[in-house]
Amino acid sequence: MDVAAADPDTVLDTLDRRLVCALQVNGRAGAGRIAEVLGVSPRTVTRRLVRLQQTGLVRVVRMPEAESAAVGALLLRIRVLRGKGDAVARALAERPDVPFVDVMLGGQEVGAVMLAGAGARDRLLHGQLPATAAVTETTVHAVLHAFADAGQWRSGHLEEADAAALAEPPAARPAAGSVPLDALDRDLLARLGEDARQSHAMLAAAAGTPESTVRRRLHRLDGAGLLRTHVTVDPRLLGLAVDANLWLDVPPGRLAAVGAALGRHPQVHGVFATSGPANLMAAVFCPDHGGLYRFVTDTLGPLGVGRAETAIVARAVKRAGVPLRPPGTEALRPRA
């Protein structure tokens, strides 16, 4: 199911934004728990959640475990002929091993994240992309370290105490591949990758297994750090009109400190040490272009970043594995 891209005139009211932020903190939190933290009735939370999800403006999905998925992932910058950006982006978005796709401002660059193994990677980079007449150049960056990813970003509409009340205790993070998964585990994870807010009862019915078994399995998977969630929502609904990728040159001795500092910044929804011409990439949300300028001058400047290339996202095509419909869908109006 596609998620609708938001109409620029669409707005979420304060409670909607707090609810989105609550889901960012804990995507599987029940309506009762969210209602208690937000100070409203469970009925209000349920009604708002149903409306946000049924209109397609908010979707909660399971994120891959960061260390095993992000490190070694490829960040692709694909230059295309004018007018071919959307077609190339759609083709990449159809791949299950490409969870993030953006068309950049101007339409002649497509950005993507690829999680494939060596075989699929080489077929795409050495065969399919060079054979596509619309593609003029491809730059590939390998992720060497993940300081923060999209599943960790918070929109900042909750007080720290409220966010802490919703957050789950930190789960142990096992080494990549150290948690054995059987067919039922993989089935449950796949279903949560489509909709992470499915209840134990819904998952049990879909998987054809007792609810008690599902509950035990999810508890085990959660303890292994495999139930991280991501809220797919158009940032414009949260007052953030500009999305940009910053390709940064940082002195090697400062790389860890700068990456960690950016990973803690509330506007940053992803920061990675990379191979290639730039050694750090940060994805940022800003309220407007003036806000992006202030981020570059006031945040990057004092960190000692040597060079910053700014690529502004014109349209998000796929986020966290969720395809996004083109703009023009019906706007969501705030309701009581």
Automatic annotation (TrEMBL):
It comes from the Bacteria. Pfam families: AsnC_trans_reg (PF01037), HTH_AsnC-type (PF13404). SUPFAM superfamilies: Dimeric alpha+beta barrel (SSF54909), Winged helix' DNA-binding domain (SSF46785). PROSITE patterns: HTH_ASNC_2. InterPro entries: AsnC-type_HTH_dom (IPR000485), Dimeric_a/b-barrel (IPR011008), Tscrpt_reg_AsnC-like (IPR019888), Tscrpt_reg_AsnC/Lrp_C (IPR019887), WH-like_DNA-bd_sf (IPR036388), WH_DNA-bd_sf (IPR036390). Residues 181-241 form the HTH asnC-type domain. Keywords: DNA-binding, Transcription, Transcription regulation. The keyword Transcription regulation applies. This is Lrp/AsnC family transcriptional regulator. The lineage of its organism: Bacteria, Bacillati, Actinomycetota, Actinomycetes, Kitasatosporales.
